């Protein structure tokens, strides 16, 4: 069995995230990390791999420092990694990203079939949560998204998921795409031995030519939407901090009335 | 490009399993009217049809026709099924497809984008209809930034957040249901819904759409009764942090944050909530933020318009009593 887990390098949540002049996520901060929610996907892949004796391939697309994201996946226990790196990818939208990742998955499948493609539920930056569904569509795979629990048995994958209004159990035959939520597991912290071992694990860097993708169809030029402007939310002004001396409940009520919030 | 008169807009009509409309549908229909002629789209299976009350609401908000797309034996809730069904209705005159920006509908939007080649955006907070293009405001970085974008393709697929427009009724005529049987791909059919349990709707306003949201965290120590009472007095919804939902103090669908519901009410009141970055991601676009926390260094005070350093068990009951008194 072979599992491909897609990971992304994103600006650190705690750092000052911003959009650059061109409306794209500014990546000059140097304090990026593996998208936290992708750690849940890596963990889920590793658990399944342990049960089913599978190979786990971490896949990422992004600039040079995106290699840190696959490195982290390798430290956690993935066997090898593929990094799609090409200058023409800057500014690629979610659909271009899905096409590139799909081509990379197909390339990995040349070494032997890929049974599961796994992703986190969303990237905690600008791409929102559209990628898993777009990637499943590109790969023409059954999608089982937002999994809070995943099992594989008898050539089928089964997930449990909690949606806004309902709880569901879904099942589909392999191969399939599964996205997992932060509820799926507690990602392992790489042990020292894992960090050492990861240094020797192969990271295969491929470009668009290797994947047979025309650079004109990706990047800012290939995007279907265009950012006109971007602005940070203005800071809140007139903020008040009070300490309760028995009167804060009353002051809260007065505040709500005064600001016409009741 | 087409003018509103010749442009068609498809609006996905979200509904509960019993056919009750989700509240945001009215806003989407209202928004759709600014773009063109609105058609409701109701995806269903096994011959189920929209109840009369739903047709009245949809017609009343400006869609004379509801296309009922019947997927037969295939489960109509699966997002690839919904996307394929919707794609079948997209024609040359379709200028926009509007869906709510829930986790599920973002998948519908993504798949429609792949199927139709449409420019697709989610987390949309405002839409401006230009003569030849749509200009859209959307939130990024958990609503700490807003970006203004334009759709380069003739068709736009938009996932819209609650409150992008105010719902407005226009007509007294119910919509007419037109049923189409739809076939979906083998891949979409390959997913089987083994179990589905829909939670009963609560009497309170829908969390994502509520104008007042009262939120409890670990500081409640599991007792949400005071917050329920405050929410009732304010006519608001009750939300929670992941700690509170993980502990089972309240349903999972009450979780606000990056991996839960995103809210942007006029008033957010957090009690016993520290304001962790994951939680802030789901509430910091709120109009007014009030925080009650015993710890003066709690990060939520960094974004609170009114911060109260105090014990929620002291502050909340007094606030409730005073609000009742002020109202007489
Ligand atoms: C990948 C990931 C995703 C996550 N997604 C989410 C998400 O979507 N939503 C979410 O909420 N969390 C999420 N979390 C969890 C998040 O990081 C925090 O752990 C969580 O939000 C903290 O919840 P809390 O504020 O209830 O608890 P705590 O951080 O423990 O804070 C409790 C607060 O209550 C105060 N307090 C205690 N007693 C009282 C009292 N009597 N009166 C007043 N104040 C009192 C304390 O001073 C403290 O500040 C996520 C975490 C991860 C890793």
In short:
The complex is a heterodimer of chains A (262) and B (328). With 262 residues, chain A is of the alpha/beta class.
Strand content of chain B: 25-35%
- For the record, what is the CATH homologous superfamily label of chain A? HUPs
Which pair has the most extensive contact?
Answer: A-B, 82 and 99 residues
For the report, how would you describe the main beta sheet of chain A? 7 strands, parallel
Termini separation of chain A: 59 Å
Provide the residue-averaged pLDDT of chain B.
93
Widest sheet: strand ordering of chain B: 7-6-5-8-4-1-2-3-9
**Helix content class of chain A:** 25-40%
Low-confidence region ranges of chain B: none
Task: Provide a count of the helices of chain B.
Answer: 9
Structural class of chain B: alpha/beta
Give the strand order, joined by hyphens, for the main sheet of chain A: 7-11-6-1-4-5-12
Which architecture of the largest domain in chain B per CATH?
A: 3-Layer(aba) Sandwich
Tally the beta strands of chain A.
14
Q: What is the chains' assembly state?
A: heterodimer
> Percent of residues of chain B in helical segments?
25-40%
User: How many individual helices of chain A?
Assistant: 8
Structural class of chain A: alpha/beta
Report on the architecture of this protein:
The complex is a heterodimer of chains A (262) and B (328). By secondary structure, chain A is of the alpha/beta class. Chain A has 8 helices and 14 strands. Chain A has a single domain (2-222), classed as 3-Layer(aba) Sandwich (Rossmann fold), CATH 3.40.50.620. Chain A has a 7-stranded parallel β-sheet with strand order 7-11-6-1-4-5-12, with helices on both faces. Chain A has a 3-stranded antiparallel β-sheet with strand order 8-9-10. A two-stranded antiparallel sheet of chain A has the order 2-3. In chain A, strand 9 and strand 10 form a beta hairpin. In chain A, helix 2 crosses helix 5 and helix 3 (94-109) packs across helix 4. The longest helix of chain A has 17 residues, at 36-52. The model of chain A has no long low-confidence stretch (mean pLDDT 91). Chain B folds into 2 domains: 9-190, HUPs (Rossmann fold); 207-326, Rossmann fold, CATH 3.40.50.1220. Helix content of chain B is 25%, strand content 28%. In chain B, the strands form 2 sheets. A 9-stranded mixed β-sheet of chain B has the order 7-6-5-8-4-1-2-3-9, with helices on both faces. In chain B, strands 12-11-13-14-15 form a 5-stranded parallel β-sheet. In chain B, strand 13 (267-271), helix 8 and strand 14 form a beta-alpha-beta unit. The chains are: A alpha/beta (262), B alpha/beta (328). Chains A and B meet through helix 3, helix 4, strand 7, strand 10 and strand 13 of A and helix 3, helix 4, strand 5, strand 6 and strand 7 of B. Strand 13 of chain A pairs antiparallel with strand 7 of chain B. Bound molecules: flavin-adenine dinucleotide (FAD). Flavin-adenine dinucleotide (FAD) sits between chains B (217-219, 241-244, 255-260, 271-274, 276, 278-279, 282, 292-295, 298, 311-313) and A (36-37, 182).
């Amino acid at each position: 069995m072979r599992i491909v887990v897609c990971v992304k390098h994103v600006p650190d949540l705690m750092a000052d995230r911003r959009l650059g002049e061109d409306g794209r996520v500014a990546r000059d901060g140097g304090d990026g990390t593996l998208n936290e929610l992708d750690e849940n996907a890596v963990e889920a892949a590793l658990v399944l791999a342990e049960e089913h004796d599978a190979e786990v391939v971490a896949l990422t697309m992004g600039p040079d420092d995106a290699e840190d994201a696959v490195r982290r996946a390798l430290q956690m226990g993935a066997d090898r990694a593929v990094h799609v790196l090409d200058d023409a990818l800057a500014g690629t939208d979610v659909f271009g990203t899905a096409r590139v990742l799909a081509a990379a998955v197909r390339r990995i499948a040349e070494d032997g079939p890929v049974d599961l493609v796994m992703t986190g539920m969303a990237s905690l930056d600008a791409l929102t949560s559209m990628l898993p569904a777009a990637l499943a569509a590109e790969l023409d795979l059954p999608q089982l998204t937002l999994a809070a629990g995943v099992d594989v048995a008898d050539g089928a994958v089964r997930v449990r998921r909690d949606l806004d209004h309902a709880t569901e159990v879904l099942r589909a035959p392999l191969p399939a795409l599964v996205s997992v939520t932060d509820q799926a597991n507690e990602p392992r912290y790489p042990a020292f031995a894992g960090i050492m071992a990861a240094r020797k694990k192969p990271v295969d860097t491929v470009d668009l030519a290797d994947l047979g993708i025309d650079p004109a169809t990706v990047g800012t030029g290939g995007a279907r939407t265009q950012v006109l402007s971007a602005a940070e939310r203005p800071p809140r002004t007139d903020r008040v901090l009070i300490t309760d001396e028995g009167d804060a409940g009353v002051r809260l009520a007065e505040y709500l009335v005064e600001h016409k919030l009741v | 490009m087409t003018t509103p008169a010749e442009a068609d807009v498809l609006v996905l009509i979200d509904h509960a399993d019993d056919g009750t409309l989700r509240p945001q549908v009215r806003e989407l229909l209202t928004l759709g009217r600014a773009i063109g002629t609105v058609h409701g789209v109701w995806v269903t299976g096994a011959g189920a049809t929209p109840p009369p009350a739903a047709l009245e609401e949809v017609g009343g908000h400006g869609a004379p026709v509801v296309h009922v797309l019947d997927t037969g034996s295939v489960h109509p809730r699966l997002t690839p099924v919904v996307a394929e069904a919707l794609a079948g209705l997209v024609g040359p005159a379709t200028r926009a497809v509007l869906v709510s920006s829930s986790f599920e509908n973002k998948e519908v939007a993504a798949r429609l984008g792949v199927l139709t080649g449409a420019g697709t955006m989610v987390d949309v907070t405002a839409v401006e209809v230009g003569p030849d293009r749509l200009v859209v405001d959307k939130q990024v970085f958990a609503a700490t930034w807003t970006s203004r974008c334009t759709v380069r393709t003739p068709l736009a697929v938009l996932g819209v957040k609650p409150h992008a427009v105010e719902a407005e009724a226009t007509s007294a005529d119910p919509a007419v249901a037109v049923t189409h049987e739809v076939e979906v791909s083998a891949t979409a059919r390959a997913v089987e819904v083994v179990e589905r349990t829909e939670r009963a709707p609560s009497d309170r306003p829908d969390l994502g759409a509520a104008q007042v949201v009262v939120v409890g965290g670990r500081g409640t120590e599991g007792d949400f009764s005071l917050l329920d009472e405050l929410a009732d007095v304010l006519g608001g919804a009750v939300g929670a942090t992941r700690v509170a939902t993980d502990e089972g103090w309240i349903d999972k669908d009450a979780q606000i944050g990056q991996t839960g519901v995103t809210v942007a009410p006029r008033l957010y009141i957090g009690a016993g909530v520290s304001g962790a970055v994951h939680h802030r991601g789901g509430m910091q676009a709120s109009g007014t933020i009030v925080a009650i926390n015993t710890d003066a260094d709690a990060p939520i005070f960094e974004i609170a318009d009114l911060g109260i350093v105090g014990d929620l068990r002291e502050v909340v009951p007094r606030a409730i009593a005073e609000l009742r008194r002020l109202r007489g």
